[in-house]
Amino acid sequence: REEANKSGKMTSIIFIRDKNAKGQEISGYIDFAHRLKSEDFESYFTGKKRLLPKLSDLSFYNWETQKSTSNATPNYQVIADNASGLLFKNKRDRKIVNVDPRQLGRGTTPQGFRLTARDSIFRW
């Protein structure tokens, strides 16, 4: 997926819930293609650095301080004020990605599926 995201052939959204350096639980959705283009991922791939959500990502939430942000990226528009919950609209094909796991299989598009995985590189 790295090359396809770097080249723009595909985009991916990564959800991470983890603890930051202060021990605070944080979570967020990351536009993987955007982060690949704006950041050097070598330290993530080698395990020297953990991939964590940032205030500048699609969404970010600190469970202790209750700080919340959402930001559009070159690939996605954030739709936060929706009865269906948090949605992301792909700017290229205009398809909606519903990240609510209860909505899987209910009219989701091929790009609207969610894959949960654990990987030692990202320490999910």
Defining key terms:
3 helices, alpha+beta, 3-stranded antiparallel sheet, 124 residues
Task: Write up this protein.
With about 120 residues, this protein is an alpha+beta fold. It is about 15% helix and about 25% strand. The chain has three helices and seven strands. It has a four-stranded antiparallel beta sheet with strand order 1-2-3-4. Strands 5-6-7 form a three-stranded antiparallel beta sheet, with no helix packed on it. A hairpin with a 5-residue loop joins strand 3 and strand 4. The longest helix has 7 residues. The chain is globular and about 35 Å long. The C terminus is likely disordered.
The number of helical elements comes to 3
Helix content: 10-25%
Q: How many DSSP-defined strands?
A: 7
Give the neighbour order of strands across the main sheet: 1-2-3-4
Helical/strand content category: alpha+beta
Poorly predicted spans:
106-124
- Quote the distance from N terminus to C terminus: 17 Å
Strand content of the residues, in percent?
25-35%
Rg, alpha carbons: 14 Å
Order of helices and strands: HEEHHEEEEE
Mean pLDDT: 84
Overall geometric form:
globular
| Largest sheet, strands/sense/barrel | 4 strands, antiparallel
